[in-house]
């Protein structure tokens, strides 16, 4: 692709035109010395559509391990021999304390995450919804949760409890999904997302890169998320955990990771594209460049089973780049 064609493509996105799959595929074939130009144009698109605000959230691993699913990258799967701490659902008071700490850290959203396939016949569900209500009563946080596969009744109860956004990653494109999970289907995940959207709630759904997928697989994921009209797209980069089937997967090159962020921004110009797990290990000192490559959301603090840089450091990265963590004073609209 010539540079003039890259600029033309970016201008088309800025003018409100949708990128085709073939156009996106062409962006994956740029010469290495043209990738910084792509990043800059993605940053321009981000500024045009979403401004300087960065959506921030913190999560809590409220129930850990013993998951029945066999996702190859996950330390919480009972199918893998990892050193992960395993524990039942945390107490309501412990989850509430974590939410209050997240608010003190400067997070805008708080997400309760549990291991397991979903909430069918799950005895913990009433405790989770009760905790969500208390968080709404005792903090100003936007509330999110990630509880796996849901039916319509679960969605309705979560909405009534005060959930505004539900997290449920597709993880990978449809044609690659079977290589990383066999205990449930890609269609199961899509069905949950559609139920959540139908209830009028926002959806946070993305995936993980660095699992051996091709560029075509990544684009397949991006366009599926576009078709589902998800609101927030977390992009994780594999942080291989000892004891999982992907523990020896070689890391992606940093510029390829940044290129992925940029291409997702071209495809999803007005959405939240969120920094998630694996960025520290895979990008190191280049983490700030993600925000200049189209990123406008960040999971701050720690992750489910690994540690991050700390909320203060994450927020400093945002503000030092002249961006603004979302808050009451700068809410969109």
Give a verbal description of the structure.
This protein has 12 helices and 10 strands. The protein is α/β, with parallel strands linked by helices and 333 residues long. It has a single domain (42-326), classed as Aldolase class I (TIM Barrel, Alpha-Beta Barrel). Strands 1, 2, 3, 4, 5, 6, 7, 8, 9 and 10 form a 10-stranded parallel sheet that branches. The radius of gyration is 19 Å and the shape is globular.
- Runs in which pLDDT lies below 50 for 5 or more consecutive residues are none
Q: How much strand content do the residues show?
A: 5-15%
CATH architectural name: Alpha-Beta Barrel
How many structural domains in the coordinates?
A: 1
How many distinct helices?
12
What's the story with the biggest beta sheet? 10 strands, parallel
Helix content: 25-40%
Summarize the structure.
With 333 residues, the chain is an alpha/beta fold.
List the helices and strands and how they pair.
Blueprint: H1 3-14, H2 21-27, H3 35-50, E1 53-63, H4 92-105, E2 109-114, H5 125-138, E3 142-146, H6 152-161, E4 163-167, H7 174-177, H8 186-198, E5 202-204, E6 207-209, H9 215-228, E7 232-237, H10 254-267, E8 272-275, H11 279-283, E9 297-299, H12 311-320, E10 324-325
Parallel strand pairs: 1-2, 1-9, 1-10, 2-3, 3-4, 4-5, 6-7, 7-8, 8-9
Helix pairs in contact: 1-3, 3-10, 4-5, 5-6, 9-10
What features would you highlight for this structure?
333 residues, alpha/beta, TIM Barrel, ten-stranded parallel sheet, 14% strand
